[in-house]
Amino acid sequence: FEKLHVLIGARYDSVQTGAVSSPVSMEAARAARIERSDDQISPRFGLLYQVQPWLSTYVSYTESFGGNNGVSANGTPFEPQKGQQYEIGVKTESANKRLSSTLSVFDLTRSNLLTADLNNPGFQILAGEAKSKGIELDVTGQVTDRLKLLATYAYTDAKYVRDNGTLLGKRLENSPMHQGSLW
Questions:
Q1: What are phi and psi for residue 127, nearest 5 degrees?
Q2: Could you tell me if 20 and 27 are in contact, meaning their C-beta atoms sit under 8 angstroms apart?
Q3: Residue 147: which residues within 8 A CB-CB, separation 6 or more?
Q4: Is the dihedral of CA 128, 133, 134, 136 positive or negative?
Q5: Whole-angstrom distance, CA of residue 62 vs CA of residue 83
Q6: What is the DSSP letter of 71?
Q7: Which is nearest to 49 in space by CA: 100, 4, 102, 90?
Q8: 15-55 pLDDT per residue, tens
Q9: What is the pLDDT of residues 63-101, one digit of tens each?
């Protein structure tokens, strides 16, 4: 098992969301406060196998959990967002350990996304689910004694796979198809 590395972990999240609103007074708003409390333990698993001293392969699975802001048209706070991600990849390292790279393929599904409430303009409903699939490449290292490198590239195909009809099949907002950086 010298070449096999195992990662097992969990994260506990506790989220409290709600709304306070009243056109009368702050006291009336506090009295009408609506809250929602949610918590979850999110697991994380990973396996890395060192094929050669310079080459490793890995696979991982993780879950995520986070609160949704706002309330529905009837004043009910929303259930939290949840996610599941699978990733598989290859890691390399130069013989002198000055450069390393990671190439990975991922599949992320996020549920409980907020979408427009078509029956109540200006409000949202829990109806969305998005799937993001793609490839990432990261290269880091010490090129010379005075020059360090950090280069990244990601191709992400992120689309709504469940919705109330207005976003189904469309690209997820704020999710670029191509993204990169060079430092």
A1: -145, -5
A2: no
A3: none
A4: positive
A5: 8
A6: B
A7: 4
A8: 887 766 666 777 876 676 677 889 999 999 999 999 999 99
A9: 999 888 878 888 788 889 999 999 999 999 999 999 999
